[in-house]
Each structure stands twice: as structure tokens, then as C-alpha cells.
Specification:
Chain A contains eleven helices and 14 strands. Chain A is of the alpha/beta class. In chain A, the strands form three sheets. Chain A has a seven-stranded mixed sheet with strand order 3-2-4-5-7-6-12, with helices on both faces. A five-stranded mixed sheet of chain A has the order 9-11-10-13-14, with helices on both faces. Chain A is globular. Chains A and B meet through helix 3 and helix 10 of A and loops of B. Bound molecules: thiamine diphosphate and magnesium ion (MG).
């Protein structure tokens, strides 16, 4: 299979979906030249300035306008340059997009996608480094995707654009340059289907978004010590495929959940609660959790590394769950 | 050009020139250190916009407040922010102004009336309104100045803040550096009006456009707005037409897909340092004296930063209270 990076995979998804459906339009800051991360490159040239347009720096306005365009029959894709900036558009996303179909008695639906890069590792400091999937998975009426590799990125983005309901699409800056195999053709990954990214039998490591890679690195480390870890990626946290997660835990009897957001009320809290409900009798140890330490993400690279989760933290948590001395 | 320069003494103008030069050399040093991989993250240098920083801050007292942006090194320096501690912040040292937690985009030196660089575009404007409210409630004569870009003037926060300041007559100066671009997006496409200053009319406040490459023009306009604010007559909007000579951030090309080399060269002819040198009819000896003094300051700042210990890992968890 051909290997392409995450940016190119997302870019292909946008090209294909804009080609397929002329109601797909793109709005965002500096998207015409794809100046910041490059995900929208070539779209303006191919589809023109009517369908692909730079917006002023007006996040509330952009996301609100997307809701309106969706009401009027379009399928807007909004790029928010950094995930942190979605804070400025919480009202149109959470109070409007997520509620309208329900509140208006099902008279309309809001087919829109907000794509946005989150996460640390680039020393942008407290206001440019957050991952916020936990916030959005709490909202009835929003779907939340957190792909971890190019194939899932492409497949989930295509599914998101075709979805008749609003999707918050989390990208991670550290993924953009990562390469991986991507199937040819109309590759779609349905929402609500977790994927086993590495098979194993001793412990289940569940990673969200980029943290799947820390789980995979940890699994390599653990393998050197004869421990077989299975790595499972929920791929979307709303809807959340608890069946696949629980199935893995029923096999391994131990589990660690890893996310880059903060621990308190994190995605891992929801996942571990679901697992203990569905597989309580199979658990041989408390479910471990790895997340960012309780602080904003600091700028300095050493401090940032200290606050963010890493594969060493995952190995440690896994060993604790296995009762192996660290 | 030197419309009102008569109100500034030669000595004062030399001081202002030196501050602009301090900013220029600091930014050049920052850019070098960034390109050498010693400064991490993002830096947005303000080269080309020094007259704005200095023209504004020269009208302020130490206890007046500024709030700035991601492109805030110049404003910081002009407000008197300590250079060694600022360099230490950029290099992630424990002695950094923000203990290595904030970095270039979040410089602050509250002791000097610098209430922070705010890298969420538009976030600083409502805060400036709030500072103005506090000054008004305490019947203080202080003012708050908020710096922002052409791009930021399209955030709702600009309009909401202008209106609040206007209805309550808060002592706030909105200083817009219209450097023609927000990242790659030109102001003529992002903004419906040609002069951002006309937006003040919508809030029944004075709005003026000034030559942002002429430190004296910036000074005069700001001095007037500050006087008005101190008298209790409310906010003003000043738009300075200016230009960033460098790319948007972290080593972006100076010209590129969104602007031409010729355009950059045209603006560079009106380099604020050159404009001020002409105005002062500066001699070679005078210029060299400024350069030598600044070089020493830069070297001292660098040495201080480099000799300072890195911030301790545990310090990343301090000041978190919930
Ligand atoms: C709310 C928000 N949206 C977008 C950004 C990304 N961003 C950083 S600087 C910038 C351009 C700002 O343009 P302008 O206000 O003109 O300031 P300049 O960079 O020209 O100094 C953008 C879009 C941000 N930091 N915050
Ligand atoms: Mg600008």
C-alpha cells in the first residue's frame, strides 16, 4: 500500500469530498495558501474562491456562519488554526450546532465539520497546546473524532464530511508529518468503530489520538521484557465503541487508558468507567490512567515534556497494573 | 513627516531612537537564536514596527498599563521590560519573566506596567477595558493601552470592548498596528474599511490614522489620546500604518506567496530607524554610540540568560491552585 503523511491524507479526503459533493465548502484562516499546516493545500486552485475562502480572524463568526450555511443546505468544513481557538466559538458549536436538530424537533440537521490541530510537543505554550476532546465528548449532539494515523485520518474525515451532523475533528500537530499506509479508492472509516493497532495478550493499552503512538512505543518496550500488550484506538470518542474496548480487556484482564488531555474528567475517566461496567469480572487490577499532569502546558521544552504524557509513563502504568516491579 | 516633532526635544528623540534600536537588535538576536534552534516554539518579531512600540510607550508612565500580542517584544522593551529576564524567558530559564512557562508569545513584566503578551488574537482588548474600569473606579489617572493588529480588529472582542469603553468613558487607548497582513491574509481582503480608524465612529470615539513608520507621529497621536483618557473623556482608537519586514513567525520567508519582494523593499525604504535618523540628522558618531551601547545591553542580557539555570521540572506544577 502507498505511504503518505497525515497532512496529505487529510488533504486527499478534502479534495475527494469537494469533488464528490459541490455543497462542501471550506472556511478558515489562511486556508487558501494553506499557510500554517498545509492540510487545505491546492483546494482553492482546484475548487475556486467561492468554495474555499480565507476568513478574517473571527472564530465566533466563522463557526456561526458555518452553522448557518449548513442550515441553508451546504456542508461546511471549518478549519480552526489551533484547537485552543475553538474556545472563541463555543456558542455556535455547543449551544447551536449541537442542539438545533433536536431543539427544532428534527426539522433540519447541521452537517458541518470543525477540524483543528491540538496538542503539545511544539513549545507553543499554554494557549496553543491543549487537547480538548474530553470537553466536546460531553455534549449530546456532537461527534468527536481523534484519528491517530493517515489512513484513519483520511477515512474518518471523509465520513465526517458525509455525516449529516456536526463533527469536531481533532488532529494532532505531532501527527502531521507522520507517514503511514493509506488504501487507494474511496476509503471511509465509520464513526464508532475502535481499531486494534497491535495485538497482545497481557494488557490492553487504550490510546486516544496521538497517544496511540506512546502506547505503541510502550508496547515495544514491554515486549522486550516479555510482556505482550494490545493497543486499541477508539478512533472516535463520541460515539465511543465500548464493545471493542471491553472485548480486548476481557482477553487481557488489565488495562491502561492514555490521553494527552488532563486527568480530571478526562476521556480516560469515561473509558475506564465504561470498561468496569462492561468487563468488571474480567479485571485483575484497577484500570490505570495516564494523562497530562495538572498544569497548563508550559512553553519550555523540558517543562512541556515533563507535563505531557510519554511512553515511559505508559510502561510504568502498565507494569503497575501487571504487578511487575517498575 | 515630522509634523509635530517640535514638541519633542532632541535629547528625547535620541532616547526614543535608542529604544527603537534596542528593539531592532533584540529582535535580530531573537531571530538568530530561533534559527539556531536555541529558542523553541514560535517567535513573531516586530522588525519594521518599532516606531509604534516606542511612540506609544514614550507617552506612558510606569504605572500605566500595556497589554500586547503574540508580536509583543517591541512593546515590552519600549515599556521598560527587563531585557535579561526577557531573554531568559525565551531561553527557558528559571530567571525568565514567566519562569519559562510562557515564552515569547506570553512575555509580561507587571512591575513595569506590562500586563502581558496575549497570544489569543483579540483576548487582550476586553482585559484592557477591565483595567480601565478599575482605574476609573479608583479615580486613578492611569490609562491602559492595548496593542493589536489589523487582523485582530476583526474579532468581536474589539467591537465589544470599544463599545464598553465608550459607554463608560474608560481610560483605554486602542492602538492598532495595521501592518497590512494577518499571517498570509491581506488587510484589503480581511477588512471592509480602508482605514481601520474609521471604526471608532461606530462607538462615538475619536479615531485617527497615523504614519506608523514615524515615531513622532505615533507619539503625538498617542499623547493626545492619553491626555483625553486621563481627563475622563474615554477611549480612542489609533491606527498606525506600518509593515512587518520579516515573515509572520518562526523563520517564515520575508516575502513569498502572499506578498512581493518589491512591496517589502518599498516599505523598507521607510524603515522607522532611517526615518528617525533623517529627522535627527544623525551623525555617524552618534549612531555608533547608540549601537555600541545597545550591543553591550544585548550581550549582557544574553550572558545573564545563558548563565541562568534552566527552570526546574517541578516548577512546572507551581501556581496551579485547582
Ligand atoms: C483567536 C486566534 N485566532 C487565530 C490565531 C492565529 N494567529 C496568530 S497571529 C495571527 C495573525 C494576527 O494578525 P494581526 O492581528 O494583524 O497581527 P500581526 O501578526 O500582523 O502582528 C493569527 C491568525 C490566534 N493566535 N488566536
Ligand atoms: Mg497584521
Amino acid at each position: 500500500m502507498r505511504e503518505i503523511n497525515f497532512v496529505d491524507a487529510l488533504n486527499e479526503a478534502l479534495h475527494e469530498e469537494m469533488e464528490r459533493d459541490e455543497k462542501v465548502i471550506c472556511l478558515g484562516e489562511d486556508i487558501e495558501l494553506a499557510y500554517v499546516f498545509g492540510v487545505t493545500k491546492g483546494l482553492k486552485d482546484k475548487f475556486g474562491g467561492d468554495r474555499v475562502r480565507d476568513t478574517p480572524i473571527s472564530e465566533l463568526g466563522i463557526v456561526g456562519a458555518a452553522v448557518g450555511a449548513a442550515m441553508a443546505g451546504y456542508r461546511p468544513m471549518v478549519e480552526i488554526m489551533f484547537m485552543d481557538f475553538i474556545m472563541l466559538a463555543m456558542d455556535p458549536l455547543v449551544n447551536q450546532a449541537a442542539k438545533l436538530r433536536y431543539m427544532l424537533g428534527g426539522q433540519l440537521s447541521i452537517p458541518m465539520v470543525v477540524r483543528t490541530p491540538g496538542g503539545g510537543g511544539v513549545q507553543y505554550g499554554p494557549t496553543h497546546s491543549q487537547v480538548l476532546e474530553a470537553w466536546f465528548m460531553q455534549v449530546p449532539g456532537l461527534k468527536v473524532a481523534c484519528p491517530s494515523d493517515p489512513a484513519d485520518g483520511k477515512g474518518l474525515l471523509k465520513a465526517a464530511i458525509r455525516d449529516d451532523n456536526p463533527v469536531f475533528f481533532c488532529e494532532h500537530k505531532m501527527l502531521y508529518k507522520m507517514k503511514g499506509p493509506v488504501p487507494d479508492g474511496d476509503h471511509i472509516v465509520p464513526f464508532g468503530q475502535a481499531a486494534v493497532k497491535r495485538e497482545g495478550s497481557d494488557i490492553t493499552l487504550i490510546g486516544v489520538g496521538y497517544q496511540v503512538h506512546n502506547c505503541l512505543r510502550a508496547a515495544e518496550e514491554l515486549a522486550k521484557e516479555g510482556i505482550s500488550a494490545e493497543v486499541v484506538d477508539p478512533r472516535t470518542v463520541a460515539p465511543l465503541d465500548t464493545a471493542t474496548l471491553a472485548e480486548s480487556v476481557r482477553k487481557t484482564n488489565r488495562c491502561v487508558v492514555v490521553e494527552e488531555g488532563h486527568l480530571r474528567s478526562g476521556v480516560g475517566a469515561e473509558i475506564s468507567s465504561a470498561i468496569q461496567e462492561e468487563a468488571f469480572d474480567y479485571l485483575d487490577a484497577p484500570i490505570g490512567r495516564v494523562a497530562a499532569l495538572n498544569a497548563p502546558i508550559p512553553f519550555d521544552p523540558d517543562l512541556e515534556d515533563f507535563v505531557l504524557p510519554n511512553s515511559g509513563n505508559v510502561v510504568e502504568a502498565a507494569k503497575k497494573a501487571l504487578g511487575v516491579p517498575v | 513627516m515630522a509634523r509635530n516633532a517640535k514638541s519633542l526635544s532632541r535629547k528625547r528623540l535620541h532616547e526614543m531612537y535608542r529604544t527603537m534600536l534596542r528593539i531592532r537588535r533584540f529582535e535580530e538576536r531573537t531571530d538568530e537564536l530561533f534559527m539556531a534552534g536555541q529558542i523553541k516554539g514560535a517567535v513573531h518579531v516586530s522588525i519594521g514596527q518599532e516606531a509604534c512600540s516606542v511612540g506609544v510607550c514614550s507617552t506612558l508612565n510606569q504605572d500605566d498599563a500595556i497589554l500586547t500580542t503574540h508580536r509583543g517584544h517591541g512593546h515590552s522593551i519600549a515599556k521598560g521590560t527587563r531585557l535579561p529576564e526577557m531573554m531568559a524567558e525565551l531561553l527557558g530559564r528559571s530567571t525568565g519573566l514567566c519562569k519559562a512557562r510562557g515564552g515569547s508569545m506570553h512575555i509580561a513584566d507587571v512591575s513595569m506596567g506590562h500586563y502581558g503578551a496575549h497570544s489569543i488574537v483579540g483576548a487582550n482588548m476586553p482585559m484592557a477595558a477591565g483595567m480601565g474600569l478599575a482605574y476609573q473606579l479608583e479615580k486613578k489617572k492611569q490609562v491602559a493601552v492595548v496593542f493589536f493588529g489589523d487582523g485582530a480588529s476583526n474579532q468581536g472582542s474589539f467591537h465589544e470592548s470599544m463599545n464598553m469603553c465608550a459607554i463608560w468613558k474608560l481610560p483605554v487607548i486602542f492602538f492598532c498596528e495595521n501592518n497590512q497582513y494577518a499571517v498570509s491574509f491581506g488587510v484589503e481582503r480581511s477588512t471592509a474599511v480602508q482605514d481601520i480608524s474609521v471604526r471608532a465612529q461606530g462607538y462615538d470615539a475619536p479615531g485617527v490614522t497615523v504614519d506608523g513608520m514615524d515615531v513622532t507621529a505615533v507619539y503625538e497621536a498617542t499623547a493626545e489620546a492619553v491626555a483625553r483618557a486621563r481627563k475622563g473623556d474615554g477611549p480612542s482608537l489609533i491606527e498606525a500604518k506600518t509593515y512587518r519586514f520579516f515573515g509572520h513567525s518562526r523563520g517564515d520567508p520575508q516575502f513569498g506567496p502572499y506578498r512581493t519582494e518589491a512591496e517589502v523593499q518599498k516599505w523598507r525604504k521607510r524603515d522607522p530607524l532611517i526615518v528617525a535618523e533623517k529627522l535627527l540628522k544623525m551623525t555617524k558618531a552618534e549612531k555608533e554610540a547608540h549601537e555600541a551601547a545597545i550591543k553591550k545591553e544585548m550581550d549582557d542580557a544574553n550572558r545573564f540568560a545563558e548563565e541562568s539555570p534552566k527552570a526546574s521540572l517541578e516548577s512546572a506544577l507551581e501556581d496551579v491552585y485547582a
